[in-house]
Design a protein that fits this description.
Elements: H1 5-22, H2 26-44, H3 51-65, H4 77-98, H5 103-110, H6 114-123, H7 128-135, H8 139-151, E1 157-161, H9 162-170, H10 180-198, E2 204-209, E3 212-217, H11 224-237, H12 262-276, H13 286-291, H14 302-310, H15 317-325, H16 331-349, H17 357-368, H18 370-377, H19 379-395, H20 399-406, H21 409-415, H22 423-427, H23 431-443
Antiparallel strand pairs: 1-3, 2-3
Amino acid sequence: MSDNQEEFDALSQAARSFVDEHGKNADRLFNFCENFMHDWREKRGTRGANDNRLVNDVFRWTMNRYNRPRYQPRRSREERASTFLLTPGAYQMSAEDFGRASVRNAARITGQSKSTVGRHLVRHGIAPRRDAKIKKLTKTTQQLVRILDATFDRQAAGILQLERLGTALWDAGETRHVPPTTQASRKKKLTELLAEISGAGVGYNIVTIGDVCGVFHGRRFRSLGEASTWIADAQRLGRYPAIRQPEPIAVPAARDYFWADPFVRDVMAIIEMGVTGHFYPIEKLDAIYRFERLLTDMTPVLPWLERAHHSFAGDDMAENLSTLADKINDPAVRKATRRLAKIMRDLKNFMGPLPTSFDAFQNVDMVLSVMDKTAEASPESFARLAYIRESFAMSGDDYLEARGRLSRMLVLEKSGEWQAPDSETLSHYLPEVVREVEVGDENDMPY
């Protein structure tokens, strides 16, 4: 510490500014401090001060205690997520504004770089040049690419077991007994297909070693030795990503099935999660996100969900997630994670040991207000949910006994074994009708 506070403050501020601009380099910082004090003395005079002590003190404190301020992005995470969601629309608009839809023209509309726009479009499944390369592959190879795209949609690397990947490709993910000879031929064929994809220039670098393949999405292994080491480390950790099936190609339905309603399917999925307490794989939680907008893009929360599931602290994923949320630095992500943990905990804890289907439905409505949100978004879907709720109340069945049949309701409807109510019947369950009935019931209650 200098006897002259002005000297100390000036040198300290200059040293911090130097680190902000050039980073921490001991030799350069020490020389800068010496030169700064030399210039200071030429202008202000010596006054008998000990410059060496002052320089050493400021240099030591700056190196040990001061860190360059963290870079603050120009846009928030939510703004970047919104840009990602709007990119396909900008791509379509570029055809109208510039005569041709292209990454360059879409970048001119959004103000983003071409690489950023291209990356966003690929995640949305819009990549004309890549699609052209994929179309040159065989049908089986194209399906394998779609499986890899679905599996590595939100992560850039992982290892996959060839047996499970073959099951996803040839058996649509359904486990069945496969003779050893067939399994061996599948493994050989799958190795050839993966090598073909790796060399097709569609964004995958794949190395197969034994019964496992290592997949890099958007980057490459520098050498076979690096790939072997990386795959061995991943096998030691035992973290295999869940192999996901691609979304089926949308085909216009011949009729509007009752149990195919998106709101009905989401509510039934949430009821199942609440009663069983099983929230993994994390794709199940998409049904919750559609009723509770926690973040525009939930990608930052996904690693914490994986950690909560694989935690050694216990099997309670909701409690593990709540504990992990305290370690998240980003305030928005921390808040969203805590809210999600509370939703999961409420869905699970409010269920009794043998809940009725009606109680399970009511619990989901209490936690997420699904009926109010559905009434605003889709009155027709609200009517279907209200019809289901009333049928649950009338039957009084335990959910665990009825879940097997409930999971097959769409199949039963398509086969004609279950008849959906007609439009006239559902008209009595529309939001405005249900609200009038509820208000009337409240007025009839004695107080």
